[in-house]
Amino acid sequence: MRRRVETAIFIAVAFLVGAVCLPGGRSLAGADDDEARVLLFSGRDIWRNGAFVHTGVLAAPGGFEQDGLMLKLLMGGGVYRYNAGSLSGERVIGVTWMHQAMAGFRIRRGNAEFKYFFGPEWQRHKLYPSDTGNRLSGQNFGLRMTGELWYEPTRDSLVAGDISVSSIATSHSSRLAFGWRVAEALFTDGVYVGPEAQYFGSDGYRHRRFGLHITSMKTESTEWSAAGGLARDSDGRASLYLRLGLAQKLTD
Fold first, then answer.
1. Spans of all domains in the chain
2. Helix, strand, or coil (residue 205)
3. pTM, whole model, 2 decimals?
4. Tell me, what DSSP letter sits at residue 86?
5. Is the CB of residue 75 less than 8 Å from the CB of residue 99?
6. Could you tell me if 115 and 148 are in contact, meaning their C-beta atoms sit under 8 angstroms apart?
7. Is the pLDDT of residue 1 over 60?
8. Cα–Cα distance, 119 to 104 (Å, whole number)
9. Is the CB of residue 54 less than 8 Å from the CB of residue 74?
10. Cα-based distances in Å from 182 to 188, 230, 248, 249
11. What is the third-level CATH fold of 2-250?
């Protein structure tokens, strides 16, 4: 009975966290890529054992169509649970907050676009019950490095990926996705649909995902993305996952 009540409470909190994700702000109608210097973005991610939200801003002084310096500010939080090896497998519920401030650079070569970011990161994890064997417990400061790829081999195909590494508990993640353009009659320039694979890890924990994504659903100055599939972690737990995101470019 205790386990069922705990599960019900966790799922309720997870959906609440997902529902309160900020939409990333208001954009000016008719934003032009050649004029835009600021992009607001947000997203949410949920599966059986975790729910996370984030929001942030990406600034490009020279514009998003030019190579050059970029600045990314991001904040987020969420709730998750895991089985603690240091507590004889007892279930632990964690609540986390994080902030990142990273400088970066954008390079475009032909149909390929590369972004690189590096900067400080702050995380705080509250664990119930306390798990002193978890290096993420408490307040942590570190450095994070990320890289992003967007490559269109042809007009109707896409290869996208990213990788991120932090000095905090050696946490890291990666994603690789392929897509093909469809639904040009419904969305501006159509949308990319295809398979994706994701991986998340830190000290003592691994998480893998395989699913389908929908990318570049554009409506005026707003761009949406979504993905879903099967997730499984190193505790042997598996469930469906859902990820949603949006981005809005602002002009002067």
1. 2-250
2. strand
3. 0.82
4. G
5. yes
6. yes
7. no
8. 9
9. yes
10. 11, 23, 22, 23
11. Porin (2.40.160)
Q: What is the mean pLDDT of residues 21-42?
A: 59
Q: For residue 88, what pLDDT band results from cuts at 50, 70 and 90?
A: confident
Angle at 78 between CA 76 and CA 79, to 5 degrees: 165
* 26 close to 40: Cβ distance less than 8 angstroms: no
- CB contact at 8 A, 183 and 191: yes
Q: Which residue has the tokens 């798990």?
A: 131
Count of other CB atoms within 10 angstroms of residue 3: 8
Give CA separation, 18 vs 97, 240, 242, in Å.
14, 15, 10
* Omega before residue 129 within 30° of 0, cis: yes
The residue among 245, 246, 225, 218 whose CA lies nearest residue 30 is: 218
For residue 67, give the amino acid letter.
D
The encoded tokens of residue 159 equal 């290869």
Residue 53, both tokens? 């939200």
Residue tagged 């600034």 (tokens)? 59
Q: Which long-range contacts (CB under 8 A, 24 or more apart) does 9-17 make?
A: 10/49, 10/79, 10/81, 10/93, 13/51, 13/79, 14/46, 14/50, 14/51, 14/79, 15/46, 15/51, 17/44, 17/51, 17/52, 17/53, 17/77, 17/78, 17/79
Residue with tokens 């709730």: 79
**Maximum CA extent, the chain:** 59
Handedness of CA 196, 113, 41, 222 (dihedral sign): negative
Q: How confident is the model at residue 32 (pLDDT cuts 50, 70, 90)?
A: low
Which phi-psi region, left, alpha or beta, contains residue 186 (left: φ > 0; alpha: ψ -120 to 50)?
Answer: alpha
Rounded distance, CA 204 to CA 189, Å? 43
